[in-house]
Write a structure and sequence with these properties.
95 residues, 4-stranded antiparallel sheet, alpha+beta
Length: 95
């Protein structure tokens, strides 16, 4: 098991992330992820381990305020089996 490396999310990551979200019935968030990757004030991140995305996070900056969203981890959304801690239940509804 390799410790995850946190890096900027890219458009190339989105198919894998969307498939994992759909697998967990989180809905298709493709449009929101694509928007986040392309927006100057949003900073989406991917945690990668052993060549697979094992987590996500998005930071959105609005002047002096920052928001976080679409946080996930391998055990909650990403379907690949792994030794990561489990959290049960879906994320909060999209707003």
């Amino acid at each position: 098991m390799q410790l995850p490396v946190i890096r900027p999310m890219t458009l190339a990551d989105i198919d894998e992330i969307v498939a994992a979200f759909l697998h967990q019935d989180w809905g298709d968030r493709r449009v929101k992820l694509e928007f986040a990757v392309g927006h100057a004030e949003m900073h989406p991140f991917a945690a990668e381990s052993d060549g697979a995305v094992v987590g996500t996070g998005i930071i959105s900056l609005h002047g002096p305020v920052a928001w976080t969203g679409t946080m996930s981890g391998r055990a909650t959304a990403l379907a690949a089996p792994g030794p990561w801690p489990k959290r049960h239940g879906p994320p909060p509804p999209n707003r």
